[in-house]
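dumping this here so i dont lose it
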């Protein structure tokens, strides 16, 4: 963060130096104040865009590591984790059953068990809590 601020300050200092070097008064008479304000505005807009891109650049996703301690503490089985991962795709119980080779009633049973183990009341809440606990990506 400080590096970016120092770069920004350095660019501003360079801009002031450049205006002095180009003899601001001469240019203001020659081209008009509005033109110089336009140039200054364009320069700061470009600088702002560059700074915005630098500050909002997303970091590469780190490798996911399953929180085995939370899985064991909650008593979540491997099959329940598979069902939970399939829940993230937004699939219905029948689609999850087809995908995992289970019956729809077994999927309902696993989902009900997950709700009680995660202490949540719905799919979205289960997914949010599981992500918070690093049980799924």
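and the seq i came up w/
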């Amino acid at each position: 963060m400080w590096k970016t601020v120092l770069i920004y300050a350095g660019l501003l200092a360079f801009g002031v130096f450049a205006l002095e070097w180009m003899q601001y008064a001469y240019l203001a008479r020659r081209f008009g104040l509005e033109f110089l304000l336009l140039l200054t505005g364009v320069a700061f807009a470009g600088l702002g865009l560059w700074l915005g891109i630098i500050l909002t650049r997303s970091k590469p996703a780190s490798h996911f590591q399953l929180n085995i301690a939370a899985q064991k503490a909650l008593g979540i089985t491997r099959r329940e984790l598979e069902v939970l991962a399939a829940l993230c795709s937004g699939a219905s119980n029948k689609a999850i059953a087809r995908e995992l080779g289970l019956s729809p009633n077994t999927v309902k049973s696993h989902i009900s068990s997950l709700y009680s183990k995660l202490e949540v009341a719905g799919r979205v809440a289960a997914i949010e809590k599981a992500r918070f606990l690093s049980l799924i990506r």
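Helices lie at 2-21, 24-31, 33-55, 68-74, 78-87, 93-100, 104-118, 123-132.
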